[in-house]
Amino acid sequence: MIHLSRPDITEKEISAVVDVLKSLSLSLGPKVPEFENAIAKYVGRKYGVAVNSGTTALYLCLEAMGIKEGDEIITTPFTFIASTNCILMARAKPVYVDIDPVSLNLDPERIEAAITPRTKAILPVVVFGNAWGLDRVVEIAKKHNLPVLEDSCEGLGTIYKGKKVGSFGTMSCFGFYPNKQVTTGEGGMILTDDANLVDICVSLRNQGRGKGGGWLAHERLGYNFRLPDINCALGVVQASRIDEFREKRSKVAHTYLRLLADEKRIILPTEPENGQMSWFVFVIRLAQKYQQKHRDHLLKSMVEKGVQVSNYFPPVHLQPFIAQQFGCKLGDFPITDAVCQRTMAIPFHNNLPESDAKIVVDTLKKCLDELDRL
Ligand SMILES: Cc1ncc(COP(=O)(O)O)c(C=O)c1O
């Protein structure tokens, strides 16, 4: 089986974790600020707040921004479910706008038509590591005096128009699940330049404890969203390798782009101009003539032949619990709907050998031949 994704763990990560175990300082120890500072410094932001997932990072940002029941957040329906779940956790309403068909990111030019007096923030997503349009989202948000919560869970290491991803939004979030560019096993990080927002997030992640207050003094309703020192130690080593990871991933992506250059039955992902992309996954799209049933057949036959693949992403607005709650239906966001029916992620990680990439491509071509005979 060729795996869809694999973390890149060396002896350095292993000994960093073992050192924490030997130190007996397992939570709220020195590795937490070390990891926060490493990521904040890399991205060029003043503050980082480490939490236990990308989802909780996003949710804490919304809470720190004061998002309340009934507020509207403009976002994309083409993303991982957590980009919407954080909005629902804050009891706010996701207001979707359709995507740009090339980058697959929220189309900034559709934002203004979706703004109402209840709009309280914009939540763009760096889909698959592509930051196209993020600068424009920020520009539009500024014009309307709205904060931007940048969901960059898939984009650590990407540079766009001279700026690191994570430095665009009022607040930005990364996720460190094992398929991400940098992993801590599970984990997330909030980044911002606003000290007040940091204080709120630090309190919220730690049971609502106040600055300088006692262990049993709680100023607000809070959570346990802390990230243990073991995970932070792993993150410190991984963070020191971000540029190495971007290079390795770019090499694998360009191998696929070369091997698939002449394959007319698929649309290949593209990198935006003006930047260096930190590839998260490699997602191909079936050509226009194919339908969802073809893509689904392809998913099945690739797995049967030993190649792990996945349908990145099914449309968020058509997940039953969201469609029911907000009355969304197929056709509401036609670009997203059409893209979702034909996309497929193929195996992609730092150390995917060229020989495996060739097997993936040969298998894909065989499966496409099968499709054409259906
Ligand atoms: C776009 C996006 N947002 C949010 C998340 C949530 O991160 P986590 O799985 O760490 O909660 C992920 C990752 O899985 C993601 O891909």
Description:
With 374 residues, the protein is α/β, with parallel strands linked by helices. It contains 13 helices and 13 strands. Helix 1 runs antiparallel to helix 8, helix 3 crosses helix 4 and helix 9 packs across helix 13. The mean pLDDT is 97.
End-to-end C-alpha gap: 25 Å
Mean pLDDT: 97
Question: Oligomeric status of the shown chains?
Answer: single chain
Given as residue ranges, the uncertain stretches (5+ residues, pLDDT < 50) are none
Our count of helices gives 13
Described by strand count, sense and barrel closure, the largest sheet is:
4 strands, mixed
Bound ligands, each once: pyridoxal-5'-phosphate
Topology of this structure?
Elements: H1 11-23, H2 31-43, E1 47-51, H3 54-64, E2 72-75, H4 82-89, E3 93-96, H5 111-114, E4 119-123, H6 134-143, E5 149-151, E6 159-160, E7 163-164, E8 171-175, E9 188-192, H7 195-205, H8 229-239, H9 242-259, E10 266-267, E11 275-276, E12 282-286, H10 292-304, H11 320-326, H12 334-340, E13 343-346, H13 354-373
Parallel strand pairs: 2-3, 2-4, 5-8
Antiparallel strand pairs: 1-9, 6-7, 6-11, 8-9, 10-12, 12-13
The structure holds pyridoxal-5'-phosphate (PLP).
Pyridoxal-5'-phosphate binds at residues 53-55, 79-80, 82-83, 125, 151, 153-154, 175, 177, 188.
Summarize the structure.
With 374 residues, the chain is α/β, with parallel strands linked by helices. The chain has helices at 11-23, 31-43, 54-64, 82-89, 111-114, 134-143, 195-205, 229-239, 242-259, 292-304, 320-326, 334-340, 354-373, and strands at 47-51, 72-75, 93-96, 119-123, 149-151, 159-160, 163-164, 171-175, 188-192, 266-267, 275-276, 282-286, 343-346.
